[in-house]
Amino acid sequence: MKITICGSTTFKEKMLEYQEKLQELWHEAIVHPDYGCYIRWEKQDVREIVQKEHARAKRENDYIRRYHNAIMWSDGILVLNFDKKWIVNYIGCNTLMEIASAYNAGKKVFLMNPIPQQDYIRDEINAIDPIIINWDLNQILPAGRQVK
After folding, report:
1. How many of the other CB atoms lie within 10 Å of CB of 78?
2. How far apart are CA 64 and CA 118, in angstroms?
3. How many structural domains comprise the chain?
4. Which tens digit of pLDDT belongs to each residue from 42-74?
5. Is residue 86 part of a domain?
């Protein structure tokens, strides 16, 4: 199964970690290509813009559209919704847009953790009925494989 990993940029190290874990389970896992660069201390000019002027970086690098396109080519998305800013299972606005893109395209939506209790998104995410995997990547089955 081709899975695009979504979540806050804060979780970029975890995204790369889970990309490897999904690949070990025979998935093709997609992560934003710049995340690896940031961790390897490459593209520091872009990283600095992201940290200071996130909207400008997204616009200049066409990040929103590029990730939307990755989602369109995927079978589904895995949202890494970990705790952030004192919010349990955090999902930010950009990730909510990615969830909506996946849902509207008929893709599977997997959440690592339960739906957060953030008032402004809880009902919307509940309405799309995501698959909550509770850290169990085996719930994301590669194409053609079935649970025995």
Report:
1. 27
2. 22
3. 1
4. 656 655 655 667 677 778 777 788 889 999 999
5. yes
Q: Is residue 147 part of a domain?
A: no
Question: In terms of Cα–Cα distance, which of 84, 148, 140, 63 is closest to 107?
Answer: 140
- pLDDT (tens digit per residue) in 90-105: 999 999 999 999 999 9
Domain range enclosing 120: 8-139
CA atoms within 13 A on the CB side of 82: 14
> What is the spatial distance between Cα 88 and Cα 71, in angstroms, rounded to a whole number?
25
**What does the pLDDT read at residue 146?**
46
Q: Is residue 134 pLDDT above 80, yes or no?
A: yes
Question: Would the pLDDT of 41 be above 90?
Answer: no
Distance CA 11, CA 22 (A): 16
Predicted local distance difference test score (pLDDT) of residue 49: 59
